[in-house]
Specification:
Blueprint (H helix, E strand, L loop, with lengths): L1 H16 L6 E3 L7 H4 L3 E7 L6 H4 L3 H8 L2 E3 L2 E2 L6 H10 L3 H4 L5 E4 L4 E4 L3 H4 L10 H7 L4 E4 L15 E3 L7 H13 L8 E6 L1 H9 L4 H24 L3 E6 L5 E2 L17 E2 L7 E5 L5 H11 L3 E5 L22 E5 L15 E2 L13 E4 L7 E3 L2 E2 L3 H9 L11 H4 L5
Parallel strand pairs: 2-9, 2-10, 3-18, 4-19, 7-8, 7-9
Antiparallel strand pairs: 1-8, 3-17, 5-6, 10-17, 11-16, 12-13, 13-15, 14-15
The structure holds adenosine monophosphate and zinc ion (ZN) (2 copies).
Length: 417
């Protein structure tokens, strides 16, 4: 009785005081079809901001051992901008941010007249912001169960579908509980066991933002995540199932100059433009088009420590210019600071670690390791774009898709047995 009372108080505290729902959401009456039950499993793990060099730098012993048993890329190329939401949703849909619509962590939608913010709980569940078809949606549509323990975009109901097993984002669930949940998923009966599992770890990103990538705190965060992955791999082995692991990250992290930041350029008149806050890039949205050209010219004349682009002239390699901007959400003018400089237009001192810059900058490069029964072993491959992970996973799981994506199956086909 006392235990029950304690449990009630505990749930009340977390649900109402912290305002965070830590319960698992399970969609009833869903089953793997007989055909899908014969398929292998994929556990996709994202370690936010796990830069391409961090496993070696901090001797992540499990990851080093596991990647040697499978495949490792020189690095994984993020999409521009190298931020969390655009890239996670891009990995989940196989599309560049300009094509899936989540073009930044914060952006202005010119048609709606609304600013999207990743931290907005209502926007996080509103599918009308999100294009493409995430992996968990196509899996469920083909009668293969999926489970997501945090992934940007996973809380929306797309075409009326959510993952069968889902946790809404909350940072208070301890890492050991996450491992136990995965163990429990793998112990479910054949018709209820998810074949596609996605997980997200925020620890390295947090530590590297606050203390920079070269810090004791980041080393400790890497160890925490490495230990957790080691335990998950043990659980997968014990299950005797054909479990493939893909461990990747959304982007890297660089140390920036916090003391000498760039304020809002004088050329921008806020009576004529909207400028959502940002550090590694600034979108400038014109209230009326007539102000774009003169302001662009004035910005070019004023610019020091940053590049100025009209949306039609944003570098092609970023797939981020006006032509590719399917939802009309990229700024009419884009300002991109030169590392280690960042913008600070709201007076809040930026974190010492930052990302969001050109994916070609080595500090922005991300990680890709994969191992398991479907992967070749002892293979090192050149860097590739993260949009190619989607067709890799659909190939392993034998899922089909009809929508146009940016990823190409042939890029990663050679890493499969
Ligand atoms: P960034 O600002 O690009 O470094 O984004 C990382 C942050 O995004 C994390 O520290 C979380 O606060 C937040 N985040 C990550 N995943 C989610 C999610 N699924 N839902 C809401 N917020 C998230
Ligand atoms: Zn991130
Ligand atoms: Zn971050």
């Amino acid at each position: 009785m006392r235990l029950l009372l304690l449990a009630v108080i505990f749930s009340f505290f977390f649900l109402n005081v912290c305002g965070q729902d830590t319960t698992q959401k399970v969609v009833a009456n869903r089953y793997n079809s007989i055909e899908q039950q014969k398929k292998p499993y994929v556990i996709l793990i994202s370690i936010d901001a796990f830069r391409w060099d961090l496993a070696d730098k901090y001797q992540a012993k499990n990851l080093i051992k596991l990647r040697e048993s499978g495949v490792q890329a020189d690095y994984l190329k993020p999409s521009y901008p190298s931020l969390t939401f655009p890239n996670h949703y891009g990995i989940a849909t196989g599309m560049y941010p300009s094509h899936h619509g989540i073009v930044d962590n914060t952006f202005y939608d010119q048609k709606r007249g609304v600013v999207y913010k990743k931290s907005d709980k209502i926007m996080a569940v509103d599918s009308s912001w999100y294009g493409g078809k995430p992996l968990w949606v196509i899996a469920e549509q083909q009668k293969m169960l999926s489970a997501v323990f945090y992934w940007p975009g996973s809380e929306i109901s797309m075409d009326g579908i959510k993952p069968t097993y889902l946790f809404n984002y909350s940072e208070i669930i301890p890492i050991d509980r996450r491992i136990n949940v995965v163990k429990d998923w793998l112990k479910l009966p054949d018709d209820k066991r998810p074949h596609f599992i996605a997980l997200y770890f925020p620890q390295v990103d947090k530590a590297a933002h606050n203390y920079k990538p070269e810090s004791e705190e980041t080393r400790v965060a890497v160890k925490i995540v490495d230990d957790a992955i080691g335990k998950m791999v043990d659980a997968a082995k014990a299950s005797g199932l054909d479990v493939n692991f893909i461990v990747l990250s959304d982007h890297g992290m660089a140390t920036i100059d916090r003391e000498n930041t760039i304020t809002l350029p004088k050329a921008i008149d806020l009576n004529h433009f909207k400028v959502p806050t940002g550090n590694a890039l600034l979108h400038i949205y014109a209230n009326e088009k007539q102000y774009i050209k003169p302001t662009y010219k004035a910005l070019k004349a004023e610019a020091k420590d940053y590049d100025v682009y009209l949306s039609k002239n944003i570098p092609k390699a970023w797939h981020y210019n006006k032509k590719e901007d399917k939802y009309n959400r990229i700024g009419d003018i884009l300002l991109v600071p030169h590392l280690p400089k960042v913008f600070n237009i709201n007076g809040v001192k930026p974190d010492v670690g930052q990302h969001g810059f050109d994916p070609a900058i080595p500090e922005m490069h991300a990680t890709f390791y994969a191992w398991g029964p479907n992967f070749k072993s002892g293979l090192k491959i050149p860097a590739f774009e993260n949009v190619n992970v989607y067709p890799l996973i659909t190939k392993i799981l034998g899922l089909s898709y009809t929508q146009k994506i940016d990823g190409k199956e042939k890029i990663l086909a050679p890493i499969l047995k």
